[in-house]
Amino acid sequence: MTDRAPQPVDRQLPTEESRDLLALVREIAQREIRPKAAEEEDSGRFPREVFTLLSEASLLGLPYPGEFGGGEQPYEVYLQVLEELAAARLTVGLGVSVHSLACHGLAGYGTKEQQSAHLPAMLGGGLLGAYCLSEPAAGSDAASLTTKAVRDGDDWIITGTKAWITHGGVADFYTVLARTGAEGPKGITAFLVPGDVEGLTAAVPEKKMGMKGSPTAQLHFDGVRVPDARRIGEEGQGFSIALAALDAGRLGIAACAIGVAQAALDEALTYALDRKQFGHPIADFQGLRFMLADMATKIEAGRALYLAAARLRDAGKPFSRQAAMAKLFCTDAAMAVTTDAVQVLGGYGYTADFPVERLMREAKVLQIVEGTNQIQRMVIARHLAGPETR
Fold first, then answer.
1. pTM given for the model
2. Is the pLDDT at 2 greater than 50, yes or no?
3. Is 123 buried (19+), middle (13-18) or exposed (0-12) by CB count in 10 A?
4. To bridge 203 with a disulfide, which of 2, 169, 171, 218 should be the other Cys (CB 3.0-4.6 Å)?
């Protein structure tokens, strides 16, 4: 093999602590995650032990307060951790992002009593979370959800079905959005539901084209009883809580997308430097050199975009438009880069002997989850031109 293999990403990190943190993440990724990724994705095995390890290493609560077991890291650092994890295996990177999303409601809107009671275990106690917003008939139009929560004394009774739930059936807790009032966004409330509560069951996981190691399943709530002490925020506040979580979650998806794209570029570059045709490495041919240059440029641009949005969030400034832009651009870039990586490897790229075909299949889902890229364009346009008048 060539000695010109790709080098680790040269990251601009704010502190020595964050540099040490990224070094730890790269070590875990190289030792515990990457070597098993292809085999376990092919067999559909969920790596729960990896999430346990990440929890023990204090990597599941990075952007949350230290008083509850979080890492108190700025979002610009947390997202680069996600990127490194996703580059090793998207099931892990996206899984950490989803877990963080599931913690967002309680961390941002819960009472001090709720946070003290639940957050330490959620952030660093080995638990794994999931986020329950979408339903079979309420995807992009999430405000039309029909799962109901009806008051019964000091409890709520939840009935309905949630769909497309990452970690469905394996999570220890679920942040659930349910209808407690009239139709529309103002009638929705958020709840923290234990994974082992009576009446909660998971369907058989979906059979997906990629991310086969990450279970995605419907969840059925058949009279699930949840105490009012597990209600997050006020009644009717759930949809605004959900939107705030999705803004942050979209940055997580953007970072994961750049991780997948970087992994694909690294594979393509290594192959192009090593593979010889007509007596020369194929990286010497201008057509391929230009492809590699375009791939690298898309990745650098995407990384800069998601980090700029993260820094706005860290500064307490509005970042919703930038989050939508980052999610849109980074996931489209990942699809383009992974497709080009398959092309660079030629026939080998189309085989499971090399990871680029898996990366291409995984990139596709990132254009769909946490708001399709068509929805991101609508969000961006509304920030620019205001709501639609039709």
1. 0.96
2. no
3. buried
4. 218
